[in-house]
Amino acid sequence: MTTLLDQPDILKTSAGAALREFINQIACPIFVIDVEDGEGGGGFRIAMLNGWYERAFGLSHADCAGRLVGEVLAPCLAYRLTDHYRHCVATRGPISYEEEIRLGDRVFWTRTVLNPLFHDGRIVRLVGTSTDLTDHRRLEQALEAAQRMARLGWWRTDLATGSTVWSDILYGIHDRDPAAGPPDPAGFLDLVHPQDRDLAAPSARVGSFDYRIVLPDGEIRHLHEERVVHSSGDGHPVALFGTVQDVTASKRAALELMAAKEQAERANQAKTSLLANMSHELRTPLNAIIGFSEMMAEEMHGPLGNQTYVEYASDVLFAGRHLLDIINDLLDMAKIEAGQVTLNEETVSAKRLLGDVDRLLRERATKARLKLTVAPAPDDVAVVADRRLMRQVLLNLVGNAVKFTEAGGEVTLATHILADGQICFTTSDTGIGISVRDLPVALAPFGRVGSHLQANTEGTGLGLPVAKALVELHGGMLHLNTSPGVGTTAFMTLPSWRVRTPDGRPPAPTIGGLKEFFRIGDRGVYELVEETGRDALADLPIGIVQLDRTGRVLSYNAAEENFAGRKADLVIGCDFFRDVAPCTFTPEFHGRFQEGVESGKLNIIFSYVFTFDQPMKVLIEMRSGREPGTAWLFIRWI
After folding, report:
1. What is the value of pTM for the model shown?
2. Would you list the DSSP string of 239-289?
3. What pLDDT, in 10s, does the model give residues 454-466?
């Protein structure tokens, strides 16, 4: 081909037409430049652009052939290219160069190999082959930008010559002038903090490690380095290569966060210790106030002589008891947070626990004009627990039910034995209920949910958090079924090993087991979502996630948003196990899912600990969806 192309007029002949057709079929951008005025390189005229060149760079052979380069391209680009052409003519040999080319609104990066063609000892043509490097350069630029943003530099040491190369970013990390070049090994160690020199020695080791450097002005920077050995094809080590990231900002942030956390923990511990130690100082005078006001209100030592004084004494008595309740809640929460609650366990019958609650709250329910029903507990069932704390849990739950149920409503306390041997105490009411979005608030210490009844109700907002913490101290769980305007059912379960019977045998189940926690009214949540569709998910008080067989999230309801702190529009379409909740990528969770979803027989209930903003124990039901290749996760957060 080059033998023909070096003939000056070949492209104008029939043989030239065949040659052009042949060049057009070569899968590489090729251009041919006629050199006018021979060695002087006075003019460069476009002789040919092949089809691949046209498609790659958007220039047309028909429009460009026969025209000077300066007539086709912008002056600055034409000047740069013709300068390469003159260099090729001057050297009388092949050259290569990389060039940024702007054609209209498009920008290309190319690598060109240019070869001179001779005729009678004179250069008559230049033949160039171009490689489009645009995508490669854009990736390089993106990588460089990412490295600058991440403060990520690199170095390479040739093991044969000992020569070292640093990247520009690494020079910047060390505040070193690139003109000075990389330091030698001894000079590099002079830059490292004296306590870290064994770690950072260039020949010390490969792997991942952190060290500090000291800048000339005394500033200390924290670096993270990854070091590997590059080997030849036969496995012989040829170079050391390392990436170095400036992690000073993240280290400082971590230290500041740790210091702030320690300070907050110290402050919280001081607060907790103060409250826990104030029990005697607060309760003793308050008990005296309550005792004397009760004596006066009941006129135990004779009439006060004026009914107004009796009413005042009753008001003082009410306020004193209310204040004592608040102090008890605060002290209980303080002791729980400080880990100072000790379980004084004994065997106590379920019937006795319910009887205690009935005696203490019957009068309050009657005054509130509520129907309080305490279903008979089995005579032969007892639990090993701290009686006082268990009684407090039930008092808190039933007390809340009485407090937030309007006159004419009903409150029911009952005991059930689950199929797996656990015992469950349930408190149901026909009160105001709690919306899905307000559940996290209701469970948070001092959380108070806004409602017309709540606004007129006294309390600290510690009843549910204290109850939940005390139940968990016993190894149990607290769950709620609740809906605004319908009411609330609280399920408090204790593990089967705490249940006792006279003959030592497990008591007979009274309800179906843990599946009762996944029922809304008289229907299971699985049937609800499958029969009513995704529109029914929003208002259900149970976290609901639908997945496909790969674990990709198909739907995500409001309850799960609120408890997990993940917005549905950011979660749907993501991998639940890897991206949304990586703590579930375990054999216990992900393994069960994989095993069941393919068979379409996924049907299991188990407890798990989610670690989002803080560890939270949850109860999970996994069910295969009716649509093949789908599954439901029903999550009880409380």
Report:
1. 0.48
2. EEEEEEEE-HHHHHHHHHHHHHHHHHHHHHHHHHHHHHHTHHHHHHHHHHH
3. 545 555 567 788 8
